[in-house]
């Protein structure tokens, strides 16, 4: 077996035995096969969270999604708890069978490789590259946005591996700039150049968790940071959060 094949991050793993995951997968399958999608967002819980509603500002992700993506025929293909293996399985079992040719893809995956699985940056990078290559092979004329893995405050080891992983992804994307666009989202979760725990939802949960998932206000920052690139690739007009939603979500 070659060393690359030994990388566990590149081998597809199903989660169909988990009821909510299976139901979500089948529901999304029906959508992409029968409804035109222009903007496709693949990911894990951070992407899945775009569908969350809540009475408090930090919980209300859906308002931000509607403002930026509601009229762009966008689909959320984020699955809570997924890592590169699970996303690869989805791609191999129908998540590329679109009704039309999507215009832009976004891939945000990898936090669970480092955290939940304890895989190193090199392994996670291999899984992400495999995902990007499979999507590009299926839709060579559609650009793909590859955001860096978001910073967190889980452990010093995860922080160091996140930095290494993002360097690898930036290096991988550089010679493929015609269709692959790496973008650093770390500033969206920082204050004064340091990761800001107040921009995460986990400490607000009961029981509280380590800062990993951006709150809705931070997701609004992410959407605003991505907007110029998405707007250009879609050849669309700029989208913004408008008052009073902007103030509600803490976006100036």
Give structural notes.
The protein is an alpha/beta fold. The chain has a single domain, classed as 3-Layer(aba) Sandwich (Rossmann fold). 40% of the residues lie in helices and 11% in strands. The protein has nine helices and seven strands, in the order H-E-H-H-E-H-E-H-H-E-H-E-E-E-H-H. A five-stranded parallel beta sheet has the order 2-1-3-4-5, with helices on both faces. Strand 4, helix 7 and strand 5 form a beta-alpha-beta unit. It is globular and about 40 Å long. The mean pLDDT is 95.
Annotate the secondary structure layout.
Layout (H helix, E strand, L loop, with lengths): L18 H16 L4 E5 L1 H4 L12 H9 L4 E5 L5 H9 L11 E5 L2 H4 L6 H18 L5 E4 L8 H18 L6 E4 L6 E2 L2 E2 L20 H19 L10 H4 L4
Parallel strand pairs: 1-2, 1-3, 3-4, 4-5
Antiparallel strand pairs: 6-7
C-alpha geometry: globular
CATH architecture classification name:
3-Layer(aba) Sandwich
What integer is the average pLDDT?
95
Q: Spatial order of the strands in the main sheet?
A: 2-1-3-4-5
Residues in helix, %: 40-55%
Number of strands: 7
Protein name: SGNH hydrolase-type esterase domain-containing protein
Domain SGNH hydrolase-type esterase: 42-214
Pfam family, one: Lipase_GDSL_2
InterPro entries: SGNH_hydro (IPR013830), SGNH_hydro_sf (IPR036514)
Short note summarizing the structure:
InterPro entries: SGNH_hydro (IPR013830), SGNH_hydro_sf (IPR036514). With 252 residues, the chain is α/β, with parallel strands linked by helices.
